[in-house]
Amino acid sequence: MKLSYLELDTTDAAWNLAAEQYVFDALPRDRSYLMLWQNKNAVIVGKYQNTQAEIHAEYVKEHDIQVVRRLSGGGAVYHDLGNLNFSFISDAVSLGKIDFQFFCQPVIRTLQSLGVPAELNGRNDMTVDGKKFSGNAQYIRQGRVLHHGTILFDSDLEAVGHALHADVEKLQSRGVASVRSRVTNLRPFLGGQMGLDAFRKALLKEILRENSGDPYIFTEADRQAIDEIRRQRYACWDWNYGLSPAGSMEKKRRIEGCGTVTASLSTDKGRIRALSFSGDFFSTLGPEALAGQLVGAELNEDGLARALADLDPGLYLHGMTRELLVHFLLY
Predict the structure, then answer these.
(1) What does 145-183 look like in DSSP terms, one character per residue?
(2) What pTM was estimated for this model as a whole?
(3) CATH 3.30.930.10 assigned to 2-240
(4) Starting from the edge strand earliest in sequence, which strands make up the sheet with 271-279, in order?
(5) Whose CB among 18, 186, 251, 330 lies 3.0–4.6 Å from 230's, allowing a Cys bridge?
(6) Comparing C-alpha atoms, which of 63, 91, 272 is closest to residue 158?
(7) CB 176 within 8 A of CB 74
């Protein structure tokens, strides 16, 4: 089957994921497509995950990290400009069957040709010396498959740990939990001499060596259609957070002037479904009344601000302000 390849020129995660969907849904099915792309700082969560469970929300906000949900399942991954992403869109090798090896082999062959002993390990990871450098996921529909993967080339591994480390919130979810295995960058295994752009060219060359192809350049009409997909889905809170499956969390913090407060929350589709407060605080009015006002609110700054617009939280949790309560519930 003929191959067309696209090298995306934006680092906006929402646009790049919209482009993937557009290529999958709208471009001719008489060929396969390869996409090579990068995102600026972003967390990409799997379709079936609870977003709040997968991110360290305060770190994500402080570092202006995009959070975007993808079409495929699997675990959350961190992207930055030291990471290269690849996507294959093709007829499914076996209808309805997820097959990672077929699409990972070009990456493994490229690395082995450069002297790196890479291998496919477990369900969907590529590793070198037992350390993960690539996670992969697939989406299959109507006989076509979208396979995409990350390649940690020279990423900020400290940021990977911080952005995806939500254990401090003791959040348990019925969604899919990410596997936080040991990870590594590839650059040290290449002697530190090869840059990401050179590796990108080597990977494309290896793929084209076995599958002759030509470039595909998005038309203005293509770009307008992708912009619309981005606007309607990948830039929307309803998709990135609101699609989250039901889950629960407990947040506990000592707040100056208030005391120690514990909030026990149940969420579904990004909204508070149940909430209770406990702790050593003082209260003029019962805190259960405050909790009742927040049930149904979207668990984001705007949603909580709307729910608290006509309330003084200090009547229910002495010393608590609207700003402190919003920050406490979110971060």
Answers:
(1) EEEEEEEESS--HHHHHHHT--GGGT-EESSPPP----B
(2) 0.83
(3) yes
(4) 172-173, 247-255, 259-268, 271-279
(5) 18
(6) 63
(7) yes
At 288, the pLDDT band (50, 70, 90 cuts) reads very high
Q: Output the DSSP codes for 215-279.
A: E----HHHHHHHHHHIIIIIT-HHHHTTTPPPEEEEEEEEETTTEEEEEEEEEETTEEEEEEEEE
Matching residue, tokens 């590594």: 184
Per-residue confidence at 175, pLDDT binned at 50, 70, 90?
low
Phi, psi of 135 (to 5 degrees): -110, 145
Angle at 310 between CA 305 and CA 314, to 5 degrees: 85
Q: Which CATH number fits domain 247-330: 3.90.199.10, 3.30.70.2190, 3.40.30.10, 3.30.390.50?
A: 3.30.390.50
Looking at this protein, which amino acid is placed at residue 14?
A
Rounded percentage of the chain residues whose pLDDT exceeds 90: 75
Q: 120-169, pLDDT tens digit by residue? A: 887 678 999 989 999 899 999 988 999 999 999 999 999 988 999 644 44
- For residue 94, the model assigns a pLDDT of 58
Q: Return d(Cα 55, Cα 76) in angstroms, integer.
A: 8
- Within the chain, all domains assigned CATH 3.30.390.50 are found at 247-330
What gap in Å lies between CA 45 and CA 35, rounded to an integer?
19
Q: Where in the chain do CATH 3.30.930.10 domains reside? A: 2-240
